[in-house]
């Protein structure tokens, strides 16, 4: 019996056995019911996902990077999540990196055989000059993609922490990583089409990891994205609006304070909320690791997390 015969992600879903004879409304209802199972499956891995968030935040604080590696849909999702971090959290493009088997061409076109090359998985990480402070997340729905296995094994050989995201358990990937996240969403409506439930589950987990880690390192105040660079008119207006709403300033006062803080919203927030001058606000931001709340309250990041 082939290995694929044991994979839940390759199994036939009896609920969609007559899929080709269903009406559009029936297809929508079935897929919606199946998608509802994804949230439950992700919740079952909550503890492991939280651990991945803490590991990621810890690496960011050390100057390390989060690196996703995957093939096909899994690789595209990693690249997508990485590409959304700079505009959302004002991070540098090399803080979160997505690596896909077959390179950039594979984002829009299938590269046959790319996922089967374990040596290339290692090579694609080698050129990134991995350091022990980096965290490598291998994404492979099947849990057995050679490209991903080669990548995470190479990362571990350099002392990097590794996380594996799969939709099968047990899996080869789960056996070689430091932390396994196995989201068991069950058979797909379209047998083997893991861009469906498995893809949705993977996207949810990646959203949690990067958003959670960015929150932990001080990229937000409450639920506001306060670490932004006002590089265009839309962002300048958003910066002023947040300063007005969070600090209770009128627009003229917000404009003046931002000018004195070199346009840095986080510094302006600390100045306004703590009642200190911009120079002192900048000093506090440095002292408290960019955590606006901690800088305002005079608490260290470690005290906040205790």
Write the layout of secondary structure elements.
Blueprint: H1 24-43, H2 46-61, E1 66-70, H3 72-89, E2 96-100, H4 118-126, E3 135-139, H5 146-157, E4 161-166, H6 172-176, E5 179-182, H7 197-216, E6 220-221, E7 224-225, H8 233-247, H9 251-260, H10 265-274, H11 278-287, H12 292-297, H13 301-305
Parallel strand pairs: 1-2, 1-3, 3-4, 4-5
Antiparallel strand pairs: 6-7
Textual characterization of the structure:
With 306 residues, the protein is of the alpha/beta class. It contains 13 helices and seven strands. A five-stranded parallel beta sheet has the order 2-1-3-4-5, sandwiched between helices.
Residues in β-strands, percent: 5-15%
End-to-end separation in angstroms reads 51 Å
CATH class bucket of the largest domain:
Alpha Beta
Biggest sheet: strands side by side, in what order?
Answer: 2-1-3-4-5
CATH superfamily of the largest domain: Glucose-6-phosphate isomerase like protein, domain 1
The total strand number stands at: 7
Q: What structural class do helix, strand and pairing data support?
A: alpha/beta
The succession of helices and strands, N to C, reads HHEHEHEHEHEHEEHHHHHH
- CATH topology (fold) name of the largest domain: Rossmann fold
- What is the helix fraction of residues, given as a range? 40-55%
Average the pLDDT over all residues and give the rounded result. 92
């Amino acid at each position: 019996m082939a290995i694929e015969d044991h994979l839940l992600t390759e199994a036939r879903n009896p609920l969609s056995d007559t899929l080709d004879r269903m009406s559009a409304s029936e297809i929508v209802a079935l897929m919606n019911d199946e998608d509802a199972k994804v949230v439950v499956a992700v919740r079952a891995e909550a503890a492991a996902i939280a651990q991945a968030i803490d590991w990621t935040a810890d690496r960011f604080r050390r100057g390390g990077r989060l690196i996703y590696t995957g093939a096909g849909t899994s690789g595209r999702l990693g690249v997508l999540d990485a590409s959304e971090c700079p505009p959302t959290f004002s991070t540098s493009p090399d803080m979160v990196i997505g690596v896909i088997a077959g390179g950039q061409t594979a984002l829009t076109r299938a590269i046959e055989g790319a996922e089967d090359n374990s040596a290339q998985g290692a090579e694609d990480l080698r050129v990134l000059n991995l350091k022990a402070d980096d965290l490598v997340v291998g994404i492979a729905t099947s849990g057995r993609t050679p490209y991903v296995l080669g990548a995470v094994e190479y990362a571990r050989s350099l002392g990097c922490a590794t996380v594996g995201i799969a939709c099968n358990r047990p899996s080869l990937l789960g056996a070689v990583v430091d932390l396994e996240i196995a989201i068991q969403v069950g058979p797909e409506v379209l047998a083997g089409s893991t861009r469906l439930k498995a893809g949705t589950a993977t996207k949810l987990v990646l959203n949690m990891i990067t958003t959670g880690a960015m929150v932990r390192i001080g990229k937000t105040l409450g639920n506001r994205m306060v670490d932004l660079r006002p590089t265009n008119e839309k962002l300048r207006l958003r910066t002023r609006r947040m300063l007005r709403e969070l600090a209770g300033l009128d627009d003229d006062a917000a404009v003046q304070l931002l000018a004195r803080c070199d346009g840095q919203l986080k510094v302006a927030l600390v100045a306004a909320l703590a009642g200190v001058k911009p120079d002192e606000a900048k000093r506090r931001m440095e002292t408290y690791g960019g955590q606006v709340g901690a800088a305002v309250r005079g608490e260290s990041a470690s005290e906040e997390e205790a």
